[in-house]
């Protein structure tokens, strides 16, 4: 694979943001911690990963590219159609190392380190592209989506899951607002369920938003505190000790359960 020399320009601010994200996801530890709380406390027992796979449209001999695959745990126990070829890619070598444990059965699977802003494949290569829970981290989103559209076949489909602006982080920030620094780190609303349609419409003719309805019913508040500490968007909560954060959230329980809203969904895009 060769990289395009005419890649998007990246500013120093973009580079700084990229470094932060890279450090956050250099290994699979933080991602595993985040997934575990959803597995343990989600009220929708179907599971977000299972629901996402119901949205996909794979077929015999298809070519699939996942960008930002993380530890690829969602592929564990899955099977590809005959003669399908799946590329699992991520910017982090640590994530790709973890992904090797979750290779799906059947078909052909390749792993590669890839930047979505400079996808090293020819035009019209893939039937299906996937970029879940990662577009809000991309420094130049328009550049990334141009690249996605370029390597997607004319009759292909692009799937990109994301969160909404009424998320777990917003709930927690509201709960502890009076304990936080005045200068809050703004929430990442670069690509959400609320603004995603207008962003994607610049690059795709058909954009459909599908919502996944869920919440957390947390019984052990320590798990939520541990989850919060993995989130860069909750850096302002560093002013609040674990003990104080536990007390604030634990006091919000009703009948021993803290209900935390979740807002997730997926966009299904076609040229």
What does this protein look like?
With 271 residues, this protein is an alpha/beta fold. Helix 8 packs across helix 9. It is globular, with a radius of gyration of 19 Å. Helices cover 30% and strands 22% of the residues. A 7-stranded mixed β-sheet has the order 3-2-1-4-5-7-6.
Question: How is the secondary structure organized here?
Answer:
Layout: H1 12-24, H2 29-41, H3 48-55, E1 63-67, E2 85-90, H4 93-99, E3 108-113, E4 126-130, H5 141-151, E5 152-163, H6 168-175, H7 196-200, E6 206-218, H8 221-228, H9 242-250, E7 258-270
Parallel strand pairs: 1-2, 1-4, 2-3, 4-5
Antiparallel strand pairs: 5-7, 6-7
Helix pairs in contact: 8-9
Task: Quickly describe the structure.
With 271 residues, the protein is of the alpha/beta class. The chain has 9 helices and 7 strands. Helix 4 links the parallel strand 2 and strand 3 (108-113).
- Describe the main β-sheet briefly: 7 strands, mixed
Overall pLDDT? 87
Beta-strand portion reads: 15-25%
Q: Number of helical runs?
A: 9
Q: From the helix content, strand content and strand pairing, which structural class follows? A: alpha/beta
End-to-end gap: 25 Å
Helicity, in percent? 25-40%
Q: What's the β-strand tally?
A: 7
Describe the global form: globular
The stretches of 5 or more residues where confidence is low (pLDDT under 50) are 10-22
Sheet with the most strands: spatial strand order: 3-2-1-4-5-7-6
Task: Determine the oligomeric state from the structure.
Answer: single chain
Element pattern in H and E: HHHEEHEEHEHHEHHE
Rg, alpha carbons = 19 Å
